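Input record (Table S2, row 338):
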Amino acid sequence: MMNLKDLSLSELEQWCAERGHARYRARQLWRWLYQAQERVPARMTNLPERLRQQLEDETYVDAVWVDKVFTDRNTASLKAVLRLCDGVGIEAAALLYRFGYTACLSSQAGCRMACVFCASGQSWERNLSSGEIVDQVLRLADVAERPMSRVVLMGVGEPLDNYAQVVKALRQLHQPQGVNMGYRHMTVSTCGLVPQMHWLADEGMAVNLAISLHAVDDEVRKALLPVAARRHSLVEIAEAARNYSERTGRQITFEYALIDRINDSDESAQRLAEYTRAVKGHVNLIGLNPVEGCELMATPRAGQVRFLQKLRREGISATMRRSLGVSINAACGQLRRG
Ligand code: SF4
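Output record (iron/sulfur cluster complex):
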């Protein structure tokens, strides 16, 4: 049996054609899947009966089920514990901002990058398929009772370590006959996988790219993000970031979690300012969120404000991200394999 949502629209056209149906049937089916969100082929009333039977016999529609939902009463943000067809668990979150909900999606069950401050990096199971990534958006919309306005690939997993399926999922979400989300409303985060950043620059998608930097010294970075930082230096990351920005016209965001006495000195702020200026990027600061088993602490609030002001005095575009979902363990670095 095949997950229908693992197919792109052109693959679905091909699938229909191979079974003797006109290609426009694929577009009808696509609307059933992503606009009407119909799960039962028998109810797809404008499709011929033979096609409905073939769908019933050869495919399935649901790839992701909701096990549990936690709601943060203060922010109306929510976290969903999700189950995949083979029983693997993942988590995703819907974070409420002024403009609506942002879906924070998982791209892998677990993560191979082993960043020391991250719950997701403590185990590894498998990559998610494009259909499993796309279905998270639909399930989150179900539980939030509102469509998702934006998606960020910042949940469990390193998105660029599952490159092909992530890119395919973003194209599926963009498809006008379906979810119809603009690429500028999508953000891919990476801990700095340089070759994939270059590939993404050539995809013609111009999604936002957020780089989890967290340190401006290669040795400190190796201690915090051991796998990624051993593969690629800060210089290589800056080159890939500059190339991405030039090719897509998108400003790069550097994510920087402030960690007490590790990366929050005035000198770190100065070096971060220089690094960011060189690629005309933006800095998004956040206090490190607590994760079980990790002894690192967030920089105290006063230190966070001082760091932000220092960047701004250097003329750097910088913001302090509101940490949504901490009470339900749905904030950055807190999502895990279910
Ligand atoms: S921070 Fe991102 S890349 Fe690092 S372990 Fe967590 S999910 Fe993986």
